[in-house]
């Protein structure tokens, strides 16, 4: 096959529709827009979800809720997860949790919760600890370090 032998598949290149070019073209006179009315006018557009002047749905429904711009979300990690995935003497931080795919892809702050038991002495570095989790880690001989 050579460059001069290339050609598109038949029917793959559709011709542009030329409207308003005489009655015999099939799209003359009103150019496929029908007769009169708002949508037949040039430059007309109706915004999405326009309901013909009726009070639109988004205005009929009450406003609810509030999203605080200062809201902080934590990725929650339980002690049972640390017990199952780490050995004694390991350092548990965001990178270690990410390496074992225990965190989501979005980088977030980490909070350690006390759900489960911990029998190994591990060093845990996180942004926040629940009081019970901190007590359990230290009771097992481990250390807790606050980041930031």
Q: What attributes does this structure have?
A:
single chain, 3-stranded parallel sheet, Ribosomal Protein L15, Chain: K, domain 2, 148 residues, 4 helices, 18% helix, alpha/beta
- Per CATH, the architecture of the domain at 74-146 is Ribosomal Protein L15, Chain: K, domain 2
Annotated CATH topology of the domain at 74-146: Ribosomal Protein L15, Chain: K, domain 2
Radius of gyration equals 33 Å
What is the N-to-C succession of helices and strands? HEHEHEEEHE
N- to C-terminal distance: 64 Å
Strand order of the largest sheet: 1-3-5
Number of helices: 4
Q: Give start-end ranges of low-pLDDT stretches.
A: none
Instruction: Specify the structural class.
Output: alpha/beta
Rounded mean pLDDT score: 93
Characterize the overall form. elongated
User: What share of residues are in beta strands?
Assistant: 5-15%
The level of helicity is: 10-25%
Query: What is the level 1 CATH name of the domain at 74-146?
Result: Alpha Beta
Biggest sheet record: 3 strands, parallel
Number of strands: 6
List the helices and strands and how they pair.
Elements: H1 57-60, E1 74-78, H2 79-85, E2 91-92, H3 94-99, E3 109-113, E4 123-126, E5 128-129, H4 131-139, E6 143-146
């Amino acid at each position: 096959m050579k460059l001069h032998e290339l050609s598109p598949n038949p029917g793959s290149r559709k011709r542009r529709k030329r409207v308003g070019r005489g009655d015999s073209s099939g799209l003359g006179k009103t150019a496929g827009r029908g007769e009169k009315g708002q949508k037949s006018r040039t430059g007309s557009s109706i915004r999405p979800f326009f309901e013909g002047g009726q009070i639109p749905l988004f205005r009929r429904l009450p406003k609810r809720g509030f999203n605080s711009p200062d809201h902080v979300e934590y990725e929650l990690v339980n002690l049972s997860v640390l017990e199952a995935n780490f050995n004694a003497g390991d350092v548990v931080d965001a990178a270690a949790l990410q390496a074992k795919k225990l965190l989501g892809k979005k980088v977030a702050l980490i909070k350690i919760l006390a759900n489960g038991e911990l029998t190994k002495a591990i060093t845990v570095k996180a942004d926040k600890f629940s009081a019970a989790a901190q007590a359990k880690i230290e009771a097992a001989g481990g250390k807790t370090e606050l980041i930031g």
